[in-house]
Amino acid sequence: MDFWISQRQQHLELNAVSEFAHGDMSYSLSEEMKQGSIIGNIAKDLGLQTGALSTRRARIDTEGTDKHYCDINPEHGELIVAERIDREELCGEKASCILKQELVLENPLELHRISLHVQDINDNSPQFKDEFITLEIHESSMRGARFVIEEAHDADVGQNSVQQYSLENNEHFILAANGNTVELVLDKELDREKKKEINLLLTALDGGSPQRSGTVVIHVTVLDANDNAPVFSQAGSSFMTELIPKAAHGGSLVSKVIAVDADSGQNAWLSYQILKATDPGLFSIDLHSGEIRTQRDISESDSMKQNLIVTVKDNGQPSLSATCSIYLLISDNLAEVPELKDISYDEKNSKLTSYLIIALVSVSTFFLTFIIIILGVRFCRRRKPRLLFDGAVAIPGAYLPPSYADVDGTGTLRSTYNYDAYLTTGSRTSDFKFVSSYNDNTLPADQTLKKSLSDFTEAFGELEGCSEVR
């Protein structure tokens, strides 16, 4: 009976409320506004006097929660923020966030619904789920291979959410982001033997102002592929030479081959085997250590020269291998096996021959260059006097004193003549040239000046084979 009365009272109250309910009012505000911030003037919007809100005991209720987000300033009739409003807490990732409020007025009873549209601000940074992202990529992966990366999350919405991604510069990867899909694209093939691990920094950026960002480290582990064949380490060559005593017994250690593989894991597990032998029953090799031992005692009937071809294989798929030739000489004295010298020094002799050829060519080139230089210098020296003479370059010579006499007594020399003598450089004769005289009178063409050799000797020094000047 009491229950029925309670239900009836609630029904009557609801009918009374609906009878006095009025239209909705709507306001817009940003989240995280400070307490006391003004949302709007509710008294003015309702057409009420400022004091009416106080006399009618106006209050604000929030639908569906006991939290009191808004309040009324009765003195000014303003709707103000009472508590922190966090859009992400109220509405999560919804595009629209509306906070329902109710204004209750008494005397008479009135109910006004208020819709508060909470606007998002850029108060959250993009975040990745983990601080580190781990990827394992085979070094055999082809260029263009794609690897999906988990996207970042931003609690903000719209333009304030994640808008773009950025990958720091690196040698091997580029970034491809399309909508909510983020992928690493292999731009350069990996090589585990050069780099086993790669760390990349991925940044997510939102579109808010100021812009916010979040980062994550992508740790790439490069997995090995069987891309390297084993290599024998002995002296960096593909053959070996060993000397075996004639008295070696069965089981004696003869030699040991060692190979290495740049790969890792099972791709670097090596096994040895003899492919070919001069005497197949004389020697054996350990599968894993590479030790070569005699299977029986050495006898006089065994050939002095024994050749073995050893192969080593890795355990990769497909398996890679390498071979090595071993020359075994059964002897107690090196002098008994001249072939050993030939085998050991063939490569050295080849290198020595090359050096000798290079030296011979260098010396020949130097000698020819030297001969050409000498010939050029001598040619230039011989041409120099001719060039000087052809250019009419005269070098003053000795001065001839005015002591010529009329030998025939004809009286043709009526005055004293002075002559300047000029000789060319390099001249090997006693010839000289009359250039000018100091008298206007000239010597007749049919006359001859004569002077004794001793007179010339005094002026020029000794001149051989010349006694007359014409």
Secondary-structure blueprint:
Blueprint: H1 2-20, E1 25-30, E2 38-41, H2 42-46, H3 52-55, E3 59-62, E4 70-73, E5 78-81, H4 87-91, E6 98-105, E7 110-119, E8 132-138, E9 146-149, E10 162-167, E11 173-178, E12 181-186, E13 197-206, E14 213-223, E15 231-232, E16 239-244, E17 253-256, E18 259-260, E19 271-277, E20 283-285, E21 291-294, E22 305-313, E23 321-330, H5 339-390, E24 395-400, E25 419-423, E26 433-437, H6 453-460
Parallel strand pairs: 1-7, 8-14, 16-23
Antiparallel strand pairs: 2-5, 3-6, 4-5, 6-7, 9-12, 10-13, 11-12, 13-14, 15-18, 17-21, 19-22, 20-21, 22-23, 24-25, 25-26
Describe this protein's structure.
The protein has 470 residues and is of the alpha+beta class. It has four domains: 118 residues, Cadherins (Immunoglobulin-like), CATH 2.60.40; 92 residues, Immunoglobulin-like; 101 residues, Cadherins (Immunoglobulin-like), CATH 2.60.40; 66 residues, no CATH class. The chain is built from six helices and 26 strands. The protein is elongated, with a radius of gyration of 58 Å. It starts with a helix and ends in a 10-residue tail after the last helix. It is a single-pass membrane protein. It holds the Pfam family Cadherin_C_2. Keywords: Calcium, Cell adhesion, Glycoprotein, Membrane, Repeat, Transmembrane, Transmembrane helix.
